[in-house]
Amino acid sequence: MLVLGFDPGTATTGFGVIEYTSGRLRPIDVGVLLTYPDMTLPDRYLSIYNDVNTLLDQYKPDTVGTEKLFFYNNVTNGIMVGGTVGVILLALAQRGLPWAEYTPMQVKMAVSGYGGAPKEQVQANVVRLLGLAETPKPDDAADALAVAICHAHSFKLGGIGMAPSGRGR
Q1: Alpha helix segments (H runs only) across 5-138
Q2: Would the CA dihedral through 113, 116, 121, 126 be positive or negative?
Q3: 164 in helix, strand or coil?
Q4: Where are the domains of the chain?
Q5: What is the CATH number of domain 2-156?
Q6: Residue 168: what pLDDT?
Q7: Active site residue 67
């Protein structure tokens, strides 16, 4: 099963592609989708949408997971990141791909066994679980791999998420 994970953002959206077969995880690709401060917000969303479609066309994942939007004080930033999630979901819906979202605590729990794990511990476990030589940079890329790992385990167990009609798990 090929799993694509996203850590959504407006300027930087992390992505991680992993293969999950017979309980084994194998890294396929990791990186970030970038937009720039001089771009209008609609142009940023269009850029992210196009980049997401490129990833979907290239890897043809079986399922996709995103980190759940979580913010405290900066409502404006939260709304803008919500738009990023929206364009990701649009691309997924156009392909009928199943999707789920996970809170940061769920991702930490799945990768490190502790929902309050510090970022460094989560990243170290991503490196260990995927047999990587080093932690992917920037943090958004490593976080996206953590989301993909979390989703692979949850999806395999028939866990949370939404599957469009006509597509079983």
Answers
A1: 41-59, 75-95, 104-112, 119-130
A2: positive
A3: coil
A4: 2-156
A5: 3.30.420.10
A6: 35
A7: yes
- Beta strands 63-67; 12-21: pairing state: unpaired
Choosing from 51, 67, 101, 143, the catalytic residue is: 67
- Assess whether 7 carries a catalytic annotation: yes
Concerning whether 139 is annotated as a catalytic residue, the answer is no
Contact criterion met (CB below 8 Å) for 4 and 148? yes
pLDDT digits (tens, 9 = 90+) for 32-75: 999 999 999 999 999 999 999 999 999 999 999 999 976 656 66
What would you report as the CA-atom Rg of the chain, rounded to the nearest whole angstrom?
Answer: 15
30 has which bridge partners? Answer: 16
pLDDT in tens, 121-155: 999 999 999 999 999 999 999 999 999 999 999 87
Place of tokens 């994970």: 5
Of 7, 51, 101, 143, the catalytic one is: 7
Catalytic residue among 51, 101, 140, 143: 140
β-bridge partners, 27:
18
Q: Would you state the structure tokens that stand for residue 129, as one six-digit string?
A: 């679980």
